[in-house]
Design goal:
This protein is α/β, with parallel strands linked by helices. The chain is 53% helix and 20% strand. The chain is built from 11 helices and 12 strands. Strands 2-1-3-6-7 form a 5-stranded parallel sheet, with helices on both faces. Strands 9-8-12-11-10 form a 5-stranded antiparallel sheet, with helices on both faces. Helix 1 (14-27) packs across helix 5 and helix 8 runs antiparallel to helix 9 (305-333). The chain is elongated and about 140 Å long.
Length: 352
């Protein structure tokens, strides 16, 4: 299949159709022209789709151009339709425009010269509209993925346009639930409400304001709000355009990090006096081990087997005690990471 744009030319008059096709092929060499001279050919070609434009006469041997227009719009709503009519009037043109007609060219010597330009313009306009819709769709998908929404307000702060994401971020099921509401009133902090209203009243921007919002279900969420003034010089009015970003997850992470830092700080405060106590307790068995080691060394040749056995028993006792102290220190250090879950305890038994 060719990559060139295709135009369907519908006209029951073979002479007019041939002349129009000749002019179009000469002036628009990059466009393929397909012709339909009767209802059967039209019924066969139209469902194939893929046409960049459809040109039709208003008066046809089997009907009129409005029927062709409706058929095209039912199959391909974005396909532009041009009336190239030898008969008709302003009423016909107005009726066609209401139904989605893209252009109206009157047949005649001037009309045949104007037809290629008219067709080219409607094709370009159709392409621009299609590209704009695709860009808007991509933008909407992007803002939804990153939890970013856009809005428009008057200088009174009342929301007039809202995308889908702000509704979701603020806890509303649909954007319609936000329209007409005051932007500042959605914030949970009265001081921040006053700050936003004052900025809008003075025509100033609000940039990166982090604020809590009370959602309809009662939960507190967090957003980052940015809004900037847009001046309509012709109307002499100011509106605000802006964006809200959901930072509830970021705030939750910050809170958890702060709690962990507080626990670590308390742990560090407890470690210092505990270290002094442990160092003192570990010194005592170490001193005994050193003492009995020296006694064995000094009296190795004269000590009886009974004395040597007693000294060794003391050494083993001190080393066991030291090992127990080290194990207790390790258990205490693991309280935050490897502690057993809490269970009910009979406090009377503990006191007893």
């Amino acid at each position: 299949m060719s990559d060139h744009p295709r135009i369907l030319l519908v006209d029951s008059d073979p002479n007019d159709r041939a002349l129009a096709a000749l002019v179009l092929r000469r002036e628009l060499p990059e466009v393929e022209i397909e012709e339909a001279g009767d209802a059967m050919v039209l019924a066969d070609r139209l469902p194939q789709g893929g046409f960049a434009a459809v040109i039709t006469e208003y008066r046809l041997a089997w009907g009129d151009g409005l029927q062709v227009l409706e058929s095209v719009k039912s199959l391909a709503p974005d396909c532009p339709v041009v009336f190239f009519a030898s008969e008709g009037n302003e009423t016909v043109a107005a009726d066609g425009l209401r139904r989605g007609l893209a252009a109206y060219v009157i047949k005649g010597s001037a009309g045949y010269l104007d037809l290629p330009g008219a067709v080219l313009r409607v094709m370009q306009r159709s392409g621009e509209l299609r590209a704009s819709r695709e860009t808007s769709a991509s933008y909407r998908r992007l803002t939804e993925e990153i939890e970013l929404g856009t809005f428009v307000t008057g200088n009174d702060g009342l929301l007039s346009e809202v995308s889908g994401s702000p509704a979701h971020i603020l806890g509303f099921e649909k954007s319609d639930g936000l329209k007409g509401r005051g932007l500042a009133g959605l914030l949970s902090d009265e001081a921040l409400q006053a700050q936003v209203l004052a900025s809008m009243a003075r025509g100033r921007a609000v940039r990166g304001l982090e604020a809590g919002v009370r959602r309809p279900d009662g939960e507190l969420g967090w957003i980052r709000l940015t809004a900037w003034p847009v001046v309509d010089t012709e109307a002499g009015t100011i509106r605000y355009e802006g964006a809200v970003e959901d930072i509830s997850g970021h705030r939750q992470a910050e809170r958890e990090l702060s709690e962990r830092a507080a626990v670590l700080g308390r742990s560090n405060e407890e470690v210092q006096p505990f270290a002094y106590v442990i160092s003192h307790d570990l010194q005592e068995p170490l001193q005994l081990i050193a003492r009995y080691r020296r006694m064995l060394a000094n009296r190795a040749s004269t000590a009886s087997d009974e004395e040597a056995t007693r000294y060794l028993a003391h050494l083993l006792q001190c080393s066991d005690r030291m090992q127990a102290l080290i194990d207790d220190v390790l258990s205490y250090a693991r309280v935050e990471t490897q502690a057993k879950p809490f269970t009910p305890v009979d406090f009377a038994a503990v006191v007893g």
